[in-house]
Amino acid sequence: MTHKTLPKIELHTHLEGCAPPAFIRGLAKEKSLDISGIFNPDGTYAYRDFDHFLQVYEAACTTLQSPQDFYRLVKAVLEESASHGVVYQETFVSPDFCGGGDLAAWRDYLAAMESAAAEAEAEHGITLKGIITCIRHFGPDAAKPTAICAVETFGDFITGFGMAGGEMVGRPGDYDYAFDMAREAGMPLTCHAGEWGGPDMVADTLRDLKVQRIGHGVNAIQDTNLVAELADNGVTLEVCPGSNVFLQATGGWSDHPIQKLRDAGVKVTVSTDDPPFFATTMTHEFDMLARTFGWGDADFNEINQTALEAAFCDDATRAKIA
Ligand code: ES4
Ligand code: ZN
């Protein structure tokens, strides 16, 4: 059973987290950077737990030093995604990893990403949109210049604002300045919550940051009232089951809450998060959902439809990918 060619819409990926280890190793060699400690002997990324994962992630990012590097990254990532049937992908991009949050530098990086995305669309028929994310463990002060980069470049390619990084650092409300700025500029919002934090983290994120989507959100399952509220309010969860299973944020596939959330009427979508870090692809996610929960074409069509409706793009793009 393989779902490789089934068309897929993916809302939750981290651009640098989609970088194949061989790609990062190649950049490190070109620049004579020694990051050998972040790889296993078999060439895969090596880390012990989520906090260490974030450190390895940032070490991998040190090899991405120019707009041209990001151009190459976007080309490589979209070729791979398209090979798994992905027709539309949203990816988190962080000005912190592209010139350190400086707006002028960010514009150069963004131009390189956009031209790579346009070429990939022509070559592979895949559309990419970017969601600017602040990094939670860099703190609320670092989130402000990130929000400025977001509102200044909000447009055809940059279609939303969000937050990634260490979920247990601070509280969602600490980041309200950045989210208020993005919301006032009309940007759609999403935030990682309920991957490591409990239902309270999801509830506080909705109340204080007023996001339309939640990254992960799976721990909401621990609070029946919150699940009902998510269903009533039409909040979309960007669920990444393979990531959760690999990082042990949840139990194994058979215990994964995606089925119960869906049964409760919550809008769920399926994404890979950081595919090479978590040994997954969109094909693997679909295969495992079919194998574990018996999902078939009707289920995958519904998931795609939910993702299409929750996508942070304009209606012309939506019509093109539908
Ligand atoms: C991430 Cl899985 C995950 N969670 C939070 N922040 C991240 N950045 C990259 N991957
Ligand atoms: Zn994520």
UniProtKB/TrEMBL annotation:
Top-level enzyme category: hydrolase
Keywords linked to the UniProt accession: Hydrolase, Metal-binding, Zinc
Annotated EC: 3.5.4.4
Pfam families: A_deaminase (PF00962)
InterPro entries named in the record: A_deaminase_dom, Ado/ade_deaminase, Metal_Hydrolase
Gene Ontology MF annotations: hydrolase activity
Domain Adenosine deaminase: 7-322
Cofactor (UniProt): Zn(2+)
Family listed: Belongs to the metallo-dependent hydrolases superfamily. Adenosine and AMP deaminases family.
Entry protein name: Adenosine deaminase
Organism from which the protein derives: Octadecabacter dasysiphoniae
